[in-house]
Each structure stands twice: as C-alpha cells, then as structure tokens.
Amino acid sequence: MNVFMIGGTGLLGCEAAIQLIKHGHKVTSVALPPLPEGAPIPEEMDLIMGDINKKSDEEILEMLKGNEVFIFAAGIDERVEFPAPVYEAYKKFNIAPLERMLPLCKKAGLRRAVVLGSYFSYLDKIKPELECTKYNPYIRSRIAQEKVCEDMCDENFSVEVLELPYIFGTQPGRKPVWVILIEQIKMMDKLPLTMYPGGGTAMLTCRQVGEVICGSAERANQGFEATPIGMYNQTWKEFLKIVYDARGMGANRKILSIPPWMMRMGLGSVKKEYAAKGIESGIDVDHLPDIMDYNLFIDRKYAEERGATEDDIKAAIFDSIKVSVAAYEGKAKLLEMKSE
C-alpha cells in the first residue's frame, strides 16, 4: 500500500511512518523544515521538505499519483496560543488544509484518508449539556473539521478521524507540549499540597498512536468514522502523582481535588494574562474547570481494534515530563511545535 502523509516528521507522523513501513507499506511525506535533531525518522520514507500550502493543485496531484491512502498528521491543538479570533487559526491549520486536500485525494484516485483529531469532539457528543462548542473555539473547530471529512465520503472514498486524547512520549530534538503543565504546577511547589480538578483523562503513548494510525490506514472502506482513541484512563490525581515523581519530588505529593468554582477563582490571573498579551484561549478559561472536572475516559477496545499494543504509560509520562522540565529550565535546545 502506498501512503501519502502531511506531517511525517512530527511526533505522531513519525511514529505512524515507522509502523506503516514495518507493515510493508511505502510512505511519502511532505513536512516543514527543519528536522528535529536526532529524531528517528525512517530512512525508507520519501521525504519532501516544504510547505504543501504553497504548492499548486497540479503539483499536489502529481505527488498524490499512485497512492491509496492519505494521512493528515498535522495541525495544532488548544495549547498553541494565538491572538483573537483564535478560531481563524484553527480554521487555517486544521480545517482549510482538508477542504483543499480531500477533494484532490479523490481526484487522484485515493480510497481512504486518516485524520488526527481531538477527543474533545468525543466529549461534545457524549456530554451535550456542557455546550462545549458554544464556549470553546477549539472544540467548535474540531467538530467542523469532522464535518468537512464526513461531507467528502462516498462509496469510493472513506475518512476516519481519530479522536486522540493526551499523548505521552518524546521525539529527540522536539519540545513537548507538556511544558505548559510544568509552568502551571510549579507555582504550587512551595505549598504543602497541589490543588487540581477532580476529573481525569484518557491517554496513550506515541508508539500506540502510530500503531492506531497504521491500523486505520489498513482498514477497508467504512464511509465516515469518528473514533475515540485511548488505552489508559487516569484521574488527574493519579496522573499528577506520576508527574511529581518524574520531577524528583516523590510519588506521595498530596493532591487536593477542587470543585470547578474554586478552579475558576484561581484562573482569574490567567484571564488577565491572556488579555494583556492579546491572546484568545481555544478552551474558554471559565469553561475549562467544568471540562476538567469530568472523567473523560475512553474504552481501549477502539484502539486495540486498530492495532494498539500494550506499552509503559508511566515510563512515557516520565520521559515527557523530564524533557519538559529541561525545556522549561532552558537546559535543552528543542524545536517548537509546528503546524506542518
């Protein structure tokens, strides 16, 4: 099987390429330079360095020729900051590329696409009373992204959006997204305890995401699918104990679960900081406590059906946090997250 990918040098795209090549598939990818130093990018992957958005339709159709599956392993998540209106940034990086690429894929004769999405879309569907799309531009954009994918499906072309949760693991040379967590909790280091929401999250490792992407690419035409993906479920309290252990502070740090109203009070300074910097948050600051108070857990069967195998999630969290601390302290020169 021949696979064309956008974002093959990124944290998840690289893992997908490794798994696809391991399964005997040919992978071609377009990615933005520079390459992260030391990253295990497969030598067998045909790499085209550059911005695909600057290519003409004719050039892209030529790239797509002979391929069967398209993978969109690019875009941005809610942790990347943008000025208002932030929705326009999500539209530019997460929606517009698919509005352009999917019709070209169909024209070139590809039969399937796999798109990396967010489990916040899953949350919006299972907890409509939270009104996530009303308050949160990021979640609204991910639902819109899924609609674009669904509208492109027919008897000859299918799309699966993988609704991914928090992902742990590192890529040499690239800055983890978890630096933001270190910034948040470090402010409470001098306190006898850490105050945090009472909910929890689904999670999985980078390697498992690569396995799931590969498994999804190999699936027969299924029309449109939006699939929640996760392998492990942890409360925030369980997760933070691992984080503090990784920071060298031991696994017995006291974590106090606080209600949403209390978290909202504590986020007042964040709102002022965003206002001063001219930033609009993708997840509304006042709505975030309600989201984080919920156990956003996922049945692992969906990931396992697509080939995910057991991994050491604690070790992956340790790796992510250690590199994040080094980045936070300026001890490591790392590439920032890109929008590919």
Task: Give me a quick take on this structure.
This protein has helices at residues 11-22, 57-64, 86-107, 119-126, 132-135, 137-151, 179-186, 206-218, 236-246, 260-266, 268-277, 288-292, 301-305, 313-328, and strands at residues 2-6, 26-31, 46-49, 69-72, 82-83, 112-118, 158-164, 166-168, 194-197, 200-205, 224-228, 232-235, 255-258, 279-280, 295-296.
Description:
Strand 1, helix 1 and strand 2 form a beta-alpha-beta unit. The model has no long low-confidence stretch (mean pLDDT 93). The strands form 4 sheets. This protein has a 7-stranded parallel β-sheet, sandwiched between helices. Strands 8, 10, 12 and 15 form a 4-stranded mixed β-sheet that branches. It has a two-stranded antiparallel ribbon with strand order 5-14. The chain is an alpha/beta fold and 340 residues long. It is globular and about 60 Å long. It has 14 helices and 15 strands. It has helices spanning 11-22, 57-64, 86-107, 119-126, 132-135, 137-151, 179-186, 206-218, 236-246, 260-266, 268-277, 288-292, 301-305, 313-328; strands at 2-6, 26-31, 46-49, 69-72, 82-83, 112-118, 158-164, 166-168, 194-197, 200-205, 224-228, 232-235, 255-258, 279-280, 295-296.
